[in-house]
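In keeping with the milestone schedule agreed at the kick-off meeting, the structural modelling team has produced records for the first pair of proteins. Each record is given below as a sequence line and a structure-token line. The laboratory manager (R.T.) confirmed that both were archived under the project's standard naming scheme.
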Amino acid sequence: MGRKATKQQLDTIYKSMGENISSMYPSLLSVLELYRVLGSIDEQSEGKRFWMDLLRVDYFVLFCHLDIVTAIRAEQRAETVWEKRIHLKYLNVIQTEIFKAMFGFGKAKHCLWKKFCNNGINIDEKDRTEIDALVADYSGTFLHTDSKDRRDFAIHYDFDPIKVYDFLCRLSEEEEMKQVSKFLEICHRLLELVYKISSEMHLPLGMPQIQDYSLWERLNFFPDKDNQLLLKTKSSLNSYCKTLDSIANSYRLPEIVGKKFGAENIISHVQPIRESIHPGMLLLFIYIDICCAVIAYFSSEHYIEKQLNLRHLNVIVYEGMKKMYGFKNSNTKGNNNNEKAQSAFWKDFLYPIIIGEGNDDWRNRALVIEKQLETLAYDSSINDEDLRNMSVHIREKNDSDYIPRFTDKLIKMNPLVEMNKALKFLKILPDVMRLDQEVANIRYTDIKRVQDQRNREMINKLENIRNIVLQSCRDEEVKESLNQSTEKLISLLKM
């Protein structure tokens, strides 16, 4: 086991990654501009197709590297364990998406690497073999049986949030960094190959920027006077992380008690109560994710770094709304805006119970929250599935790349708009959490009522058995012992 890096070494790595951002971001913009120019030329030739695929490999790697470095730097700036976990989970998503697009899973018919290698232009067999070996080594450790679950937990959450909690708690900074180092080695070799081929064939990889993207850097600024929002967000994050840990410990308590006292069947009796915890945990995950994205945005040093963290914020709000409430229609290109049949905690669990069994005060609160959530569900800036898809995926289903179109949107993404909708959503969550607590109380009361009825039936049976035994027994000591034992059992059932 190697020694952990010192603070000085980590600071050096952090600074080096910042320098990578400074150099790779302009390179990405130049490559994308050249790709657009080539695409606009009305010519079909083998040379042009190869050149464009060469540029695609280049911008795949550059974009992916920027994304990974942004997540790692946010994780290194994190001040708490939970904040670190949230940023580590995104490394799973980034690697899965780029690997799927570049090298594919299974047969990999349409992956870029296979297309690039089989396009008729000779690629040095040694280069290809070395990269294939790195890919095989990487996929052997990263693409394990739960890699899809890890990726989905990081993006979609889950209707059983304890699975997400366990996944996040298992994340190891050391293991995740080992894995991402292997992945970055593949990226490095791909860039070397791209530059080698471009040099041999005298193909330029970029040109001077035509658009003045510095304009967007000046316009897209979110003012946070005296770091008030940042400090408030950090305070809220610490509080809600403690609450999450406390709820998870309560969820585990029946398992611990059952194992310790050999009463594993206790879990089945309290399972409805445990399940009532699920919405609260989901809400906490959403809240914590938003806080981490906001902190990462404000603490970023580079423009594209800020924008990539802003992209995370957009995805969190979209996925959080979808899981908690759902959307009334879809704002996806090519979709007829038909209403979607979606399962969501609010509509399927919280709201019906409060309306059906809550008192007038809680019903009125639920109606107010329902209107607020409905407004957000119709908000086209939140309900934008197309933006969500290009924020997560690298390639579209029609086998084209998101990166050129998304990078342009990413650069122009307005932090005032993104923060505003996130804060609107964040403002509602505490009210939904309080309502969820009342639902848990209602569920507990219902379960206790059923359990009390079962206990009364059990007490009647015990008393009947005692009376029958007492009538047939002549030994006074046995009678006394039976009476004492029965009374203890009845006392326990009445508790």
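The second protein of the pair:
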Amino acid sequence: MLNERPKKVKNYSDPTKWQLFWRIQGECWRRMVTPYLMYLFMSLLLLSVQAIIPDENSVVEIVLGVICILGGGFFNAHLLYHTGILHYDNFITGNIHRRNALYGIQSGGDHRPEREFRPWEGFYIGLLISLPVLILGIFAHYFYSVASLFFMMFAGWAIIPIAWFGTAEGGGLLVDPLWSLLFMIMPILISGVAYLVGALVEKRRKANGAAHDEKIKEAGKKK
């Protein structure tokens, strides 16, 4: 027992540039999974609504469809808002560790810099969420009969609104499926803005907390 070497504690706070790059990729992919699943769930709900409602009630079909799509956007915003809060909190923690390192104090061995706030990350996560639209949209442009089922299942929120314009006699759409790529803008903007808002809210909360603590210190000195 006395001869056993102590286990080395991994230091996550000082990665190389390439390690940091790949860790950021992993973090962004991890953060896109749940929002994408929310869009997937709303797509399946949207597909069910389209199947249940008769064709003559097209207005009701479109209204309920829009509600389903907005529901996916709401969950997307909610999740990325909290991601922004979490990442900004990690950014503040990282600044403390880096400041301590300047004085020779190693205090952040378990800190993960890939989880720190970066203004562009929310938009990048949104791009990752919309990747199925990009892939299936291009594929459906050339092979719609093959891609349509997969498109409706995995990214229905982007293709079903295109189908509202009508279908051709051969079973294709009157509108080119490439127009569905415009729906990529939705998760990109929602994710990016919600992420920035979450970080801003956390920044203000930290600032207000620091100001409150300073007032308490000043009041204590006066006593």
